[in-house]
Amino acid sequence: MLGSWLILRWALNQMDPNKNAKAMAKLRKKELAKRLGRPVNLDGQYEDVVAQAVINPAAIDVTLEDVGGLDHIIEDVTRNVITPMRHPEHFRSNLLRQKRGVLLYGPPGTGKTMLAKALARECNACFILLKSSTILSKWYGDSNKLVAAVWSLASKLQPCILFIDEVDSLLGQRSHQEHEATTAIKTEFMQARALGGLHPAGLGRAGRALSLPLWEGFETTGRSNILVLGATNKKDRLDDAVLRRFSLQYEVKLPNVTQREAILRLTLQRHAREIGPENIEPQLLPLGAADGGSGLAWLAERTDGFSGSDLVQLCSQAAAVPIQEHIE
């Protein structure tokens, strides 16, 4: 009898159409728990999909000290974003509230994504890198469910930062010409509701699930600790309703000569730590912020119009020259 029961159970298990999906879900839960250093209860296949975009803040190798030329933004962000997220108990009144939406806009390569990652590390917040491909699906209705899964998972992981890179591609201006499914996604995202409450997993004291507005009007419950951080090169293409709800907006411009020198200095300082200062051209030394190097000032003056990314690429190409000469 026991043998027959085991054979029947094995046969039914082999016939289960969701067998592979269940195995993948179990594997994803283990992988996410290992990545975050704590178990996370994932509910359904949609949270499984979103979980692949979660980054442990301890795994982010960018700090605010690595972000050059944005001191004025970092100072303001520290006061209005980092401190409230790290000490939410002090921001519970009408005047003292955590900011729920931060927008970084400006030309490409100016450090918007780098600053976003540094913020997540500084806040010790789980970082969900949200892209259009994460929540857009060819199946009708799936995108709305994925949006809801984003918020429900963020509620479980809080403190959490939802980072939407190229936010204009996901939440651009609505028009009568776009597909109704696309409009529905935008509306769902702005008015999403998910489980939340006193308990990290979204349960109240009585153990009942509480349905709380998370992004509706960008005014979340005082008990939540979730920030939506967007980055875009085209601010004017954002939907007006979305733009209005980003309570903090920072323009990340192309660096001026002082900022370019700071970026060059930080880039070479990191290179010197990795391979040794003896491999840095003497004209570029010293690298101290106080005295600087005449070579860096000379470079900064002649790189007008360069973005932070352009300057890093310039240093990278220069660093490859002696390696090639040594090999030859």
Automatic annotation (TrEMBL):
GO terms for molecular function: ATP binding; ATP hydrolysis activity. Residues 98-256 form the AAA+ ATPase domain. One of its GO terms (cellular component) is mitochondrial outer membrane. InterPro entries: AAA+_ATPase, AAA_lid_3, ATPase_AAA_core, ATPase_AAA_CS, Mito_OM_Translocase_MSP1, P-loop_NTPase. The keyword Manganese does not apply. Pfam families: AAA, AAA_lid_3. Its main location: mitochondrion. Keywords: ATP-binding, Membrane, Mitochondrion, Mitochondrion outer membrane, Nucleotide-binding. It is a single-pass membrane protein. It is found in: Mitochondrion outer membrane. Belongs to the AAA ATPase family. This is AAA+ ATPase domain-containing protein.
